[in-house]
Amino acid sequence: MGSSEEANKPASLYDSSSQSQPLLLKPPSIEEPNQPDEPESDPTQYLQISYNYGPRPFKDLPFVIFFVFVVLCTFGFGIFSVFHKNSNYSNLSSYKYDLNSNSCVRNSTFNGFYESRFDFYALSSSGSVFLKSLIWTLVVTLILSVPICFLLLLSLKHYTKQIVYVSLPFFVVIPIFFNVYWFVACTVSSSCSDAFPLVYRILVLVFVFLIIGIIVWIFVANWHRIELTVKIIGVASDALSKNLGLFVVIPLLTLGLVVYYAPIVVFLVFARLNGKIVPKESNGEYKCVWKQDSWVPAYYTLAILTMLWSLTIMVEAQVYVISGTVAQWYFTKEDAKPRRSIRSSLRHAFGPSSGTVCLSGLLICVVRFVRAIVDSARQEDVPGMVNLVLRCCVKALLSAVDFLNKFTINFVAITGEAYCTSARMTYELLKRNLLSAVFVETVSTRLLAGITFVLSAIYAIVVCAILKGASSMGVYSYVVAVLAWALLIIVLGFFVHVLDNLIETVYVCYAIDRDRGEVYRTEVHEVYSQLPISRNHRPPIAPIAPVV
Question: Where is the protein situated, by its record's location annotation (predicted)?
Answer without folding.
Answer: Cell membrane; Membrane
